Amino acid sequence: MDRIKDFLLLVVLVASLFACSIDEAQPLAHKKLVIASDFLYPKDAKFFAELSKKEKVAIEIIHMRADSIQYRLKKDGFNTNIDLVFVQSLLGIKALENQAFQPVQNGFSDGELSELKQIQNNWFLVGKDPFVISYLKDSLDKPSTYRELSSDYLWTSPDLASVDVFKAHVRYQFQKKQGNNQKELKDWLRGLKDHRIAYQEGTDSTASTQLLLLKYSAYSKNKLLAQMKKRKVIFPKQLYCDYFAMAVVPQAKNYAMTKSFLLFWNENANSSKFLQHFGMTALGRIKKGKGFYISPEEILALLSKRN
Description:
It contains eleven helices and eight strands. It has 307 residues and is α+β, with helices and mostly antiparallel strands.
């Protein structure tokens, strides 16, 4: 009888200890940062392993288009499990322009996010994505400026959607630098369209040999193009750029971790080794009284206009 009592006592003791261990483990199990992104995939969580280990938090990435993120956030409302939105283009910000995001700047002391740039509707620019020109070294087609693509050469792009951002830059240039010369602007854009040809992707062993206009991220992530030794990449002097950006979802379930993520990015904002994983280049420091060569806010305003 005593043995039975001892056995039952042991069972109760083990059960209580097990229950305690579950209760202690639950907070860590629920400590998670969920990022919705149109360019990151679940496997890319490895790039944030340092932050994940430091904060003892799981980082989950949900890949979906920007318009799908907009639909999901609207549908879920304050019940969404998404904490942070991370997009690869001003086009993504445009697609989400009707979505409210959480203001966070006031939650930081001065200088804590010194390497990032906050723009309209509480978005943070976190990296540049230059438009580059790429051609074969032994090719006869060797432009050095964007304008030549509208007059002297046939060009193409594996990422035509981003060309809308490029054309917004052209419009801005004429409005601010050329006295709003509408005829010349129309000729510029018409020539760009007339000189565009169909993109040929190439084969598994041979990349496209065409003259390309594309964002640097698209080039660096295309293994066939990036590994082609004969291909040259040109960054024009008056550089047009797209931007990677992130924003915090209102009522984010793990708001504290979204702030940690922003701080983590700020610490790595000028690390080329870190940024190259995403095809980004650093925003670069902005001198007092001087902004970007072309303001991202201006480009966003012009994206709604068509040729």
